[in-house]
């Protein structure tokens, strides 16, 4: 195993598992941005273990999920091993912040960090998932794993799809490609997003715009991802009409001539059987966008 695949001693390796010739690892570390221990997972393909510098894809999971969910359920490692892609999945929120009521609702608080930096007390002290990913986790991994910093993509599901679109649009210097499964594409217009944004960011909706992918896209001066964005959406998804609003994002893309492939699928719901079915399409889309 290449020495470049070993993280510093202050990052605790919780477990590792041989997988498709590579290794699936789960880690914990003390996060400076969050102010609490945070967990994340990494899949290293055989090419990385042999010392080859590889492209990487960050996956952001949805409500109620953890750093384990994608790695266990999506079936992505076989494709990543074949293509030589490093996979990274952070947890979905801080844990053990001991904020009163933080576990009372499945769609707000624990496992529902919405990949933003909260500005409202008491959430603002620890709920800083946006900065955690771009200012701490990704730089740490780029410095210590055989990752090509010029070839990093991002994807996500539901709340994580929202996060992936927002992070990509706000940090094109970090992310060269983006895709999403059933994203919360216009959070300012849906109950999930309105609840999260009010609690984390306050009632002034002007402060919501920087975390709303549809608004961010509307404000682009040119197409930010000329190689295209891929979104898959199941038509049997019970959250589609009330919560997700992919057509709003499609309209925003059209307004700035951003290429978008928005695919609807009969019979598919909001869960990981849907993701497992189309994960190869997303990994290949993202890898094409990472080509030098």
Apparent shape: globular
What is the H/E string? EEEHEHHEHEHEHHEHHEH
Poorly predicted sequence stretches spanning 5 or more consecutive residues: none
Our count of helices gives 10
Beta-strand proportion: 15-25%
What Rg do the Cα atoms give?
18 Å
Instruction: Supply the helix-strand structural class.
Output: alpha/beta
Largest sheet: 9 strands, mixed
Kindly report the average pLDDT value. 97
Distance between the termini: 26 Å
Helicity range: 25-40%
Number of DSSP strand runs: 9
Strand order of the largest sheet: 1-2-3-5-4-6-7-8-9
Which features characterize this protein?
single chain, about 290 residues, alpha/beta, globular
In short:
By secondary structure, this protein is of the alpha/beta class. It has helices spanning 46-49, 69-73, 77-83, 129-144, 159-170, 191-201, 213-218, 240-244, 246-255, 272-289; strands at 11-19, 22-30, 37-44, 54-60, 86-90, 147-157, 177-181, 229-234, 260-265.
């Amino acid at each position: 195993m290449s020495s470049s695949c070993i993280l510093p001693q202050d990052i605790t390796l919780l477990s590792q598992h041989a997988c498709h010739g590579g290794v699936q690892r789960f880690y914990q570390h003390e996060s400076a941005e969050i102010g609490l221990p945070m967990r994340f997972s990494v899949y290293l393909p055989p090419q990385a273990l042999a010392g080859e510098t590889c492209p990487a894809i960050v996956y952001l999971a949805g409500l109620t999920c953890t750093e384990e969910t994608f790695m266990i359920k999506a079936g992505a490692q076989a494709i990543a091993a074949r293509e030589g892609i490093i996979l990274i999945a952070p947890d979905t929120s801080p844990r053990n912040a001991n904020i009163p009521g933080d576990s009372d609702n499945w769609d707000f608080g624990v496992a529902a960090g919405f990949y933003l930096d909260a500005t409202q007390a008491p959430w603002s002290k620890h709920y800083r998932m946006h900065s955690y990913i771009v200012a701490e986790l990704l730089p740490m991994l780029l410095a210590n794993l055989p990752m090509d910093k010029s070839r990093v993509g991002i994807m996500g599901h539901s709340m994580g799809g929202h996060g992936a679109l927002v992070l990509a649009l706000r940090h094109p210097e970090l992310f060269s490609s983006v895709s999403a499964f059933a994203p919360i594409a216009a959070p300012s217009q849906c109950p999930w997003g309105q609840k999260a944004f009010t609690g984390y960011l306050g009632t002034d909706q002007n402060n919501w715009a920087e975390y709303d992918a549809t608004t961010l896209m509307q404000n682009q001066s040119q197409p930010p991802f000329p190689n295209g964005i891929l979104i898959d959406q199941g038509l049997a998804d019970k959250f589609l009409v009330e919560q997700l609003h992919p057509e709003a994002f499609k309209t925003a893309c059209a307004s700035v001539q951003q290429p978008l492939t928005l695919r609807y699928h009969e019979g598919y719901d909001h869960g990981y059987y849907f993701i497992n079915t189309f994960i190869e399409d997303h990994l290949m889309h993202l890898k094409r966008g990472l080509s030098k």
